[in-house]
Design goal:
Blueprint (H helix, E strand, L loop, with lengths): L2 H16 L2 H17 L2 H18 L6 H7 L13 H7 L1 H13 L12 H13 L10 H25 L6 H29 L20 H19 L4 H16 L4 H21 L4 H33 L2 H4 L2 H14 L14 H7 L7 H30 L3 H17 L8 H22 L9 H16 L1
Helix pairs in contact: 2-9, 3-5, 3-6, 4-9, 4-19, 7-8, 7-17, 8-19, 9-10, 9-11, 10-11, 10-12, 10-18, 11-12, 11-13, 12-18, 15-17, 17-18
Amino acid sequence: MTLARAARRAREGFDDFVHSKLYIAFIAVVAYVLWYSENLLAAIAVLGVTGGLVLALVRDMVPMVPFVTMAPCVVHVDKMPGELWQYALAVLPVVAGLAIHIACYRRNKVVSPKSNLLAMALLVVAMALGGLFSPAAQDGMTAFINVLYVGVAPLGVYFFVKLYGEAKCRLGDYAAAVMAIWGMLTAAQAVTVIGGAYADGIDIASNGYVPRLGWGNSNVYPTVLMMCMAFNFYFMGKSWKLVVPYAFLTGIQFACVMYAHSRGALIFTIVVIAAGLIAVTVYNRKNPLYWAVLAVALAALALVLTFYWERLTLILGNTFEDKLQSSGRDYLYIEALDRFFENPMFGAGFGYVGYVTRLHTESGFYQLHSTLFQTLGSMGLVGVLAMAYVYVMRYYTVFARATRVKIFFFIAMIGFEGYSLINTSTFTGLPCMTVIYMLLALFELEMAHNAGDIPVGATVKQLLAGRREVWKKKRA
């Protein structure tokens, strides 16, 4: 065997690996180990090398979806360290891999008027215009960073998946596997943190206990689990053999959400579980094996509830105790309306300096804790129109050709959108919006592939060569 042939076979094997569920699981295991090691610089360096290799060796951007989804999960601290230049050096392999990828691989032509690209781009424009003519106090650098984080970064990732994505595997199944395994990773981290607190003698049932994973606080990680649970039911519907293991996983994830003591997350997690159970039952209503396994799973659930009923009622009682009065979000919503009526067209912007100092010091982003009120307060009517267009195109993508995986994605979005009405998730660039944008890109690629319509363009090198030929002809 010649060296060239061996290299080709190795590359083909690597290509097959990154399109498999084993690769997604590998990314999750690596992320957990790096997170548990609590060495952020080493974690980012390992991720940088891994991401750079995938970008350099594989044209298809689809394998970057699990990488981008789970990369934030290596962060074990609430705040990034001060010396960021070291971390910037650690991601240089990703930058190099991206440069090689853009230069050497043929890109798709993103020409479909039915894609989410225009809607997302207009939302970024609305974010950038936010705060124009507003008399409210603003910080320009904060606004710039937040527009990049919330708008430009998720849009850029979506665009590159569309630009270099291929249908080398069943994209719907791949997307579902990414979400299900991401849910396993998040649950493993939550169990580690909550179990560690319990071992240290902390009263984890108390409403005063606030678990933090580093990358995800007690609002963010329940949002992730809520979204991922929907895809547990997707895999339950694939085979009756998967009902019990995924039901067990869902139970663990629900317990992790419960110990976060987030009232809204708990309510919408129950909604997602109920909707997922209804959907998977409808899909398998004629399968007697499914009904038998479901009966066993429900009996096991009833047994667990019998033994842990007092503990469950204690946790729920603590979670809902005095929450309506103590959250303080009603004041934020009034503040959002004040900023809207003060500048109805553009709101107060994403650099708005509000009245609650803690919101600035904790995140640098004045979160108004609601999709509706954040849109009104930060972007005004321009933002409302842009968000409306985003939602129209998002759910057009879901229902234009409503495959089974899209139905479970919609169930995940029911929980996400519902919780976001009283939380910050819609304006969390990483991980929430970036992951949603990538899933939409996969769905669009799958629809284009099924229609036989993923037009391929030239590489950057070919484009530059063509421009040189035109320039030479003009000179001649």
